[in-house]
Amino acid sequence: MSSRANIPYRDALANAHLLGWPGAGRAGHLAESIAKYVIVDMFAKACAGAPTKEVIKSAEVQLKEIYRTA
Known about the structure:
The protein contains 4 helices and no strands. The protein has helices at residues 7-11, 27-35, 38-47, 52-68. The radius of gyration is 18 Å and the shape is elongated.
């Protein structure tokens, strides 16, 4: 493998940003919501047949708790 093949990996961090950038607030909030799979779980529960309003409300409660701990 030539060294030219590694250039994209070498330069990848030059323009990298944390998730949620340039949003306001603490970057940790978004990272925590992703780490806890809040949105993924919401969709999975809805696809498994749980009532849509219930799974949305559950995700809302979880996200409000995450973002409240500023």
